[in-house]
Amino acid sequence: MSQLKRILVTGGAGFLGSHLCERLVDAGHDVICLDNFFTSQKANIERLLDFHNFEFIRHDITMPIWLEVDEIYNLACPAAPGHYQYNPIKTTKTSVMGAINVLGMAKRCRARVLQASTSEVYGDPVVHPQTEDYRGNVNPIGPRACYDEGKRVAETLFMDYHRSNKVDIKIVRIFNTYGPRMHPYDGRVVSNFIRQAIAGEPITLYGDGSQTRSFCYRDDLVEAMIRMMNSEPEFIGPVNIGNPHEFTIRQLAELVVKHTGAKSTFINKPLPEDDPLQRQPNISLAKAKLGWEPKVELEEGLKATIDYFRNIDMSHYRPPTPNHD
Length: 325
Ligand code: NAD
Ligand code: UDP
What we know:
The chain is built from nine helices and 13 strands. With 325 residues, the chain is α/β, with parallel strands linked by helices. It is found in: Cytoplasm; Golgi apparatus, Golgi stack membrane.
């Protein structure tokens, strides 16, 4: 087994964070999960609370915090459009002040710090598939900017702390990821479609459904994040992490109908402003540097996610109306 470490996961109670915490706890590391439960539920980390090597801290990452750690995974940030647009100013603060706080901690502790960045730094991309050297096409004043630009500034801060203060950093750019423990009302396409299909409600295609996304299964994604954290110090990224298999949103809807056996019809709703028309990661760099590529294809991952949604009590979850500053 590799050397055991003290690891902080910000946003550790969320969809990806809670799975990452599980992987790290199971590997024997001393894990601190920090979260303010803005978009997550305690149930996500319930199983972990019994482990001696797991600790939870309820804290807002926009505020400084003093901890002693060897590694930091910085995931704290609402990720679904409906969640990050609920309080857009807070979203930008979370990305920017959160980055400053974890980078300051990493500098003081000489810890390695990984930023969960996003394919949204490419905006509505005119280069397809997207490679890491593409500088993107983001609207800085649109409704997605609080997330996209916040994540872009976070990358800037990571690079400047690295160049100016020699902080040991890693940046991963995550493309659409789905799987068990997604919030059923987060408004993202996979959760919306599965929830609607299970309830026998019409499936909401925004626009004509011809826009594309490439969907990565949660377990593949978390494996890549851990590999990136443990990669050679000289490789700092940014590196694209995602599944390059691209689908139209209509194709996704058809697969959800097939695997739920639903009788749902499709209805069209307006395409949200600045909704990217296409998205597909070029993952050559991840393959070369991390020896990683996704293993779980969409149909298999969808089946696992549908099973999960069938077995949770959705009345415990609500659409995003949290009362946060
Ligand atoms: P999520 O909403 O389930 O997880 C985010 C977690 O951060 C939640 O537990 C939330 O409560 C917490 N959080 C939010 N603001 C906080 C704050 N100010 N202080 C402390 N905690 C806070 O979303 P996710 O899909 O698990 O995303 C995790 C990370 O991965 C995010 O940074 C997101 O931007 C990034 N990412 C995810 C995807 C994806 O498709 N899932 C794609 C690109 C990037
Ligand atoms: N989408 C849709 N119906 C829904 C929810 C989303 O057609 O009920 C579309 C949305 O317009 C976008 C795509 O699905 O083109 C992915 O949306 P999501 O919010 O999951 O992620 P993002 O746009 O951030 O990639």
